[in-house]
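sanity check both lines:
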Amino acid sequence: MHFPNPTHFFEITEEEGLPAAQILEGLQSSRGYIWIVSNNLGLSRFDGHQVKNYTATAYGLNPNIKAIFEAPDSMIWTI
């Protein structure tokens, strides 16, 4: 049996820069970024190499993000 596109899995943990181990929601955007909502700690973006954290206090985000989605214009929205 031949599988032309093998699936690769990897973990993104606190060692890679996530602010918390508990993840509430995630989204892969049309630009390829993986956006991660952490419990009461804001939003993180993984570009395939490193994690950038957008904390509620530093970026004026609501610390209680419940959902994340991408609009048709590629903007990322949280509620």
About this structure: The chain is about 5% helix and 35% strand. The longest strand covers residues 23-28. The two ends are 45 Å apart (CA to CA). The CA atoms of residues 68 and 78 lie 4 Å apart.
